[in-house]
Amino acid sequence: MGILPGDILLVHASLKAVGAVRGGVRAVVDSLADAVGADGTLVVYTQTPDNSDPSRWPLTRGYAVPATEWPRLRATLPAFDPERTPSFGVGVLPEEVRTRAGALRSGHPQSSFAALGPAAAWITSGHALDCHLGEDSPLARLEELQARILLLGVGYSVCTAFHLAEYRVPGQGTREYGCAVADGPGGRRWHRYRDVDFDASHFAELGESYEALAERPVTRGRVGRADCRLLALAPAVAYARTWLIDRRAGRDRQP
């Protein structure tokens, strides 16, 4: 795939797509760590959207609860703990990275990242409570560090970096979020904040458009049975911003 020693690599993966691997997820992470070497850093998205307002659970958890239960759940939902709270809905590879000795995790209660390697502390520090995936998140740090993205058996629909571009689209909509956060030793509180109203429904189309550029910015290959892609984060985000702005302008021009 062209991964190099010293790379800072954000990995999104489906091991089911890869197929049977001797040693399982541990062997896959070992292989990625070998590829980036001692000077490289592995990064994964360890989201916890299940720590959300109960009114949103049909989207974040896949089931609904009666509105009469919402106040009780807001008062009792466990607070996010970067060291102990498992990721949700992103597969087994992020959990393997997150739980390895030396791994660090950012502190956002819904959109955290975990990293393993020399740049982990810088990448995961300072993740603001009111910023899922914008300028005060690890994605912006990864952009500064010229990170690359490996889509291992998954498509552009889960390319989290495209969300960074959404923050840079003029007039991007926002909405209110809610989650349980730690508040002092052993304490918790319900935290409400406004942030970007994300829409990944067009990311597959966006990614295919980027991949079709004449300069061929995406390397494709196979790992096991999986179709994989390797691309630089910063130019992909820059392209995504322009593409999203043009898409909105075209939609606004429609009668």
Largest sheet: 7 strands, mixed
Radius of gyration: 19 Å
Estimate percent helicity. 25-40%
Biggest sheet, spatial arrangement of strands? 3-4-2-1-5-9-8
Query: What's the number of structural domains?
Result: 1
From the spread of the alpha carbons, the general shape counts as globular
Distance between the termini: 45 Å
Task: Provide a compact summary of the structure.
With 255 residues, this protein is of the alpha+beta class. The chain has helices spanning 15-18, 24-36, 57-60, 70-76, 92-98, 120-124, 138-144, 161-166, 203-211, 233-253; strands at residues 8-13, 41-45, 104-105, 113-116, 148-152, 174-182, 188-196, 218-223, 226-232.
Give an overview of the whole structure.
The protein is α+β, with helices and mostly antiparallel strands. It has one domain (8-51, 85-170, 200-253). Helix content is 33%, strand content 21%. The chain contains 10 helices and 9 strands. α2 (24-36) packs across α5 (92-98). The chain is globular. The relative contact order is 0.17. The model has no long low-confidence stretch (mean pLDDT 95).
Please outline the helices and strands:
Layout: E1 8-13, H1 15-18, H2 24-36, E2 41-45, H3 57-60, H4 70-76, H5 92-98, E3 104-105, E4 113-116, H6 120-124, H7 138-144, E5 148-152, H8 161-166, E6 174-182, E7 188-196, H9 203-211, E8 218-223, E9 226-232, H10 233-253
Parallel strand pairs: 1-2, 1-5
Antiparallel strand pairs: 2-4, 3-4, 5-9, 6-7, 8-9
Helix pairs in contact: 2-5
